[in-house]
Specification:
The protein is of the alpha+beta class. The chain has a single domain, classed as Wheat Germ Agglutinin (Isolectin 2), domain 1. The chain contains 3 helices and 3 strands. Strands 2-1-3 form a 3-stranded antiparallel beta sheet. Helix 1 packs across helix 3.
Length: 90
Amino acid sequence: MEIPKAFFLAFLATGYYSDIVDEPSLKIISCSHYQKKFIQRKHVCSIRVSPLCASNNVTYPNSCVYCFANIALNLTLQIKFSGRCPKPHS
């Protein structure tokens, strides 16, 4: 299970944080497809962009990337809304 963790860390390093907020609308995304062993080995996501703001205040570019991150975090994430998360104020 080290590959999902490495993928998640690599994703965070790419900086998918943003400062634009979309209209809130709760989404439920099933990640069961991405939990299959042959899918876990491939770790391939499309480049389609459909941002999702998750409960950890990270914007994921699409549901595939969100699911791999969620699996790496033991399915602890939830979608707050479709769109980009607000940039944290420092």
